[in-house]
């Protein structure tokens, strides 16, 4: 079996608790502000766009495209790719890429969310080409 990059485990806090719990059920959720009607990431209680605390969780369809990416090959045990994915909901999410040829990754490439276990067994989001 090929070695795979070991995903770091997210650290839970009151603001990201529902986000991390949704990932255990293979669901990507986002915080949405009811005052300015915009989603944001990383999850926060206070909307970073307008400062309102009237925020709620929405389910993301988990589809988007690569906005920017990097492939780490030097100084790591196993190469891995990270990207900013612009979700169809209009916000960018920092993520690992998986199930892809690192030499074939392109800006604008369509991707979808998948979930894999991290070092300690909890699941986290990654994206793979559609
Ligand atoms: Zn807002």
TrEMBL record:
Residues 21-52 form the ChsH2 rubredoxin-like zinc ribbon domain. Residues 57-116 form the ChsH2 C-terminal OB-fold domain. It comes from Polynucleobacter wuianus. GO terms for molecular function: DNA binding. Gene3D superfamilies: 6.10.30.10. This is DNA-binding protein. Keywords: DNA-binding. It holds the Pfam family zf-ChsH2. The keyword Signal does not apply. The keyword DNA-binding applies. InterPro entries: ChsH2_C, ChsH2_Znr, NA-bd_OB-fold, Thioester_dehydratase-like.
């Amino acid at each position: 079996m090929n070695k795979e990059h070991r995903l770091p485990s997210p650290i839970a806090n009151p603001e990201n608790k529902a986000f991390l719990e949704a990932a255990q059920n293979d669901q990507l959720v986002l915080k949405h502000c009811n005052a300015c009607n915009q989603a944001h990431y990383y999850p926060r209680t206070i909307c970073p766009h307008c400062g309102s605390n009237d925020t709620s969780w929405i389910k993301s369809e988990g589809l988007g495209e690569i906005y920017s990416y990097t492939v780490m090959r030097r100084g790591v045990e196993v190469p891995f790719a990270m990207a900013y994915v612009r979700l169809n909901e209009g916000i960018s999410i920092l993520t690992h890429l998986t199930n892809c040829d690192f030499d074939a990754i392109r800006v604008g490439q369509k991707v979808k969310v998948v979930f894999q276990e991290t070092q300690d067994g909890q699941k986290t989001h990654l994206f793979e080409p559609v």
